[in-house]
Design goal:
By secondary structure, the chain is mainly alpha-helical. The protein contains six helices and no strands.
């Protein structure tokens, strides 16, 4: 079991958030040309603000990872607040300037794809780590990893259903993304906790 399971769980959490930020920004940039002239300045300002928030988030993650586990634990609440600020700004945009369903769906699809990718990458990384654990201690890890994969498939299916429906409001789409994000966080934490339990006691 890797000694830094809390750090690995934290890094998975931050990577998933950064991937979502990147997907949101990519979506905003892709549809910028479709925005009406009177809204273009607001849309460009939003993209600049979101990019700045993403860059600040990434910089803080990097600094905390270099400072070690204690800094990471102390700083996670700050990162969560930054993440919520990013989300709030996206939600405000969709409630004011970006009310077109097509824009909302495009962003939803890119963020949902980023979430699905994060699930797969985390599961693959955890599977690789599980192969390093002694066979006698792998049962809990394997069970938690299988549950994570099942949860990922369930979350992806729910997001696909919404994507195909194509008519839900941003509030509903955002709520579905938030629920999938919470499920990812829970599953990731459960697997890393299983690694921690499988860790031989330090002598």
């Amino acid at each position: 079991m890797p000694e830094q399971s809390a750090m690995q769980s934290y890094l998975s959490w931050t990577k998933e958030r950064i991937d979502e930020m990147d997907a949101t920004l990519a979506s905003r940039e892709a549809i910028a040309s479709q925005v009406k002239a009177d809204s273009k300045a607001k849309a460009e300002q939003l993209a600049d603000d979101l990019r700045k928030r993403r860059d600040e988030f990434q910089a803080k993650v990097k600094a905390q990872a270099q400072a070690g586990e204690a800094a990471m634990q102390a700083g996670k609440a700050q990162l969560e607040a930054q993440w919520q600020g990013f989300e709030a700004q996206v939600n405000t945009y969709f409630q004011t300037v970006g009310k077109q369903i097509e824009q909302q769906q495009a962003t939803f699809q890119q963020v949902a794809a980023a979430q699905a990718k994060a699930w797969r990458e985390a599961a693959d990384k955890l599977h690789a780590e599980a192969s390093k654990v002694a066979t006698a201690r792998r049962a809990d890890i394997d069970a938690a990893l299988e549950q994570m994969r099942a949860d990922a498939a369930d979350a992806e299916a729910r997001l696909q259903t919404l994507k195909q429906a194509g008519s839900d409001s941003w509030v509903a789409l955002s709520a579905a993304l938030a629920e999938a994000r919470k499920a990812f966080d829970r599953a990731n934490r459960v697997v890393w906790d299983a690694f921690k339990r499988a860790s031989p006691p330090k002598s």
